[in-house]
Design goal:
Blueprint (H helix, E strand, L loop, with lengths): L9 E5 L2 H15 L7 E5 L2 H6 L3 H13 L1 E4 L7 H7 L8 H9 L2 E6 L16 E5 L9 E5 L3 E7 L8 E8 L3 E5 L4 H18 L2 E6 L7 H24 L3 E5 H10 L4 E5 L1 H14 L6 E6 L5 E5 L5 H8 L9 H18 L2 H19 L2 E3 H4 L8 E3 L1 H11 L1
Parallel strand pairs: 1-2, 1-3, 3-14, 5-12, 10-11, 10-12, 15-16
Antiparallel strand pairs: 4-5, 4-13, 6-9, 7-8, 13-14
The chain binds NADP nicotinamide-adenine-dinucleotide phosphate and magnesium ion.
Length: 399
């Protein structure tokens, strides 16, 4: 059989621990036998990030801007324990944070649905994709603890020496707390465009909710920017595609999401997205079945699994024990990237391969062959609990 050709390479970002082991198996057993795989390889494993003073992360993000499509393995975000474990020069920043800042992207998370892993919400028959704004609000806040009576104000001092604006937050008569948050029109606009592009790309309706009735300037600005951009740039394209943009109060969105059948994109402000993505992914069954893609406003795509490096399983693996780690989200990161490369380069065979590999994964699970995390929650009778390697081989066999 001739291997499927590629023209432009993918940016390949290798990672850490159990997912690094899986990464190699997926390439060797599921992709390379069928595709003449072209990648520009960046080793984002923690030892190499340390050796390059984290320059490799920046280079990988720059390469993504140049080539347009990347696939990323899960990576360790170092904390004090990791600094000691790996003898690091310093506590390097989160690679995902660095890449997100350089690409100015929005993160979309979507569950992979299979028969036998049923969502906790009975009506959800289609996936719900969550788009989280990744800038500002409480994540860039400043906070004060107020110990005794006194006045707290917001003060804006224009850089050009114009008139100072003040607003009283609270005249404290007793101890309390206070916080200041901000956002930027430019960032909100990027978030709106990324969400609308993704809706067009995946042919799904877009929902957005904020608390504009209470927050008449701050949240209202989000609502207005979304509406202005929709009316000026997307209204006609949405109509042509037969999809809709829908804004309502965040409370109302939450109620409607639970009653819905799924099949739409839910754009969330930063905090809503943080909290709701954990709820939605859990309600769909498993974190190991959740894909994640970072989309930048100028059309660059970075695909990854939503879960981390599965450290606990890695230590078992190092101790020579057999693991049963779920590779589905990692495989779907690869298929997402290959399909997008196929679309951009006009290689329908490459995109069709991605579809076929995904069908092989879903078919394997629906036939009752799965890793331990799914075997524990499936509604199928007598599931076969496979090891990490056996599952990938079962998919390869079916493929
Ligand atoms: P994690 O790797 O997502 O794993 C947490 C637990 O979830 C695992 O111990 C396992 O539960 C279960 N799990 C997650 N993925 C699984 C899979 N594919 N198959 C089977 N079970 C799975 O999170 P963590 O242990 O908190 O973090 C480990 C490292 O990952 C950290 O250093 C963190 O910085 C990093 N991280 C990276 C990313 C990223 O690169 N995008 C995201 C999150 C975390 P059981 O142990 O009960 O089996
Ligand atoms: Mg969260």
């Amino acid at each position: 059989m001739d291997k499927i050709a590629m023209t432009t390479p993918l940016v390949e970002m290798d990672g850490d621990e159990m997912t690094r082991i899986i990464w190699q198996m997926v390439k060797d057993r599921l992709i390379r036998p069928f595709v003449d795989l072209k990648t520009e390889y960046y080793d984002l494993g923690l030892p190499n990030r340390d050796a390059t003073d984290d320059a490799v992360t920046v280079e990988a993000a720059e390469a993504t801007k140049r080539l347009g499509v990347a696939v990323k393995c899960a990576t360790i975000t170092p904390n004090a324990a990791r600094v000691e474990e790996y003898g690091l020069k310093q506590m390097w920043k989160s690679p995902n944070g660095t890449i997100r800042a350089l690409l100015d992207g929005t993160v979309f998370r979507a569950p992979i649905m299979v028969k036998g892993i049923e969502p906790y919400v009975r009506t959800w028959t289609k996936p719900i994709t969550l788009a989280r704004h990744a800038y500002g609000d409480v994540y860039r806040n400043v906070e004060l603890r107020v110990d005794a009576p006194g006045k707290v104000e917001l003060v804006y001092t224009p850089a050009d020496g114009g008139e100072v604006q003040r607003a009283t937050v609270q005249v404290f008569k007793e101890a309390g707390i206070v916080q200041g948050v901000h956002n930027l029109d430019r960032s909100i606009s990027s978030f709106a465009r990324a969400s609308m592009n993704f809706a067009l790309d995946t042919h799904q309706d877009l929902w957005f909710g904020a608390k504009d009735t209470i927050s008449k300037t701050y949240d209202h600005r989000f609502k207005d920017i979304f509406q202005e951009i929709f009316d000026a740039e997307y209204k006609e394209r949405f109509a042509e595609a037969g999809i809709t943009y829908f804004y309502t109060l965040i409370d109302d969105v939450v109620a409607r999401v639970v009653r819905s059948e799924g099949g739409f994109i839910w754009a969330c402000k930063n905090y809503d997205g943080d909290v709701m993505s954990d709820m939605v992914s859990t309600a769909f069954g498993s974190l190991a079945m959740m894909t994640s893609v970072l989309v930048s406003p100028d059309g660059n795509w970075e695909f990854e699994a939503a879960h981390g490096t599965v450290q606990r399983h890695y230590y078992k693996h190092l101790a020579g024990e057999r693991t049963s780690t779920n590779s589905v989200a990692t495989i779907f990161a690869w298929t997402g990237a290959l399909r997008k490369r196929g679309e951009l380069d006009g290689l329908p065979e490459l995109s069709a391969f991605a579809d076929r590999l995904e069908r092989a994964v879903i078919g394997t699970i629906e036939a009752g062959e799965m890793t331990g995390d799914l075997a524990a929650i499936t509604t199928l009778d007598n599931p076969k609990r496979l090891t990490t390697e056996e599952f990938i081989d079962a998919v390869a066999g079916r493929l």
